[in-house]
Write a structure and sequence with these properties.
Length: 85
């Protein structure tokens, strides 16, 4: 099964015991030894890729937002932003 952690990132968890400790070399749960189905691993990889893409999009939005704010402040204050004093 796939959990989403508080940061919004997907985490692969054992279908048998629900723990999130996996041996990536063997693809099996550390806790109970259950093997992770290839389909579950593929699903997790897809979820990771989706999360990475959404984070990249959000970061791009944040950069645009910040640039807009700085422009506004510069026009209002009539001085170069970011200088000490
Ligand atoms: Zn397990």
């Amino acid at each position: 099964m796939i959990f989403t952690n508080p940061a919004g990132a997907p985490e692969l968890a054992c279908d048998e015991c629900g723990c999130r400790w996996f041996d990536r070399m063997t693809g099996a749960c550390y806790e109970c030894g259950a093997a992770v189905a290839p389909a579950a691993r593929a699903e997790f990889e897809a979820a990771l890729a989706e999360f990475a893409a959404s984070r990249a999009a959000a970061a791009a939005r944040d950069r645009n937002q910040q640039r807009g704010d700085e422009d506004d402040q510069g026009q209002r204050a009539q001085r170069p932003p970011g200088r000490p004093h």
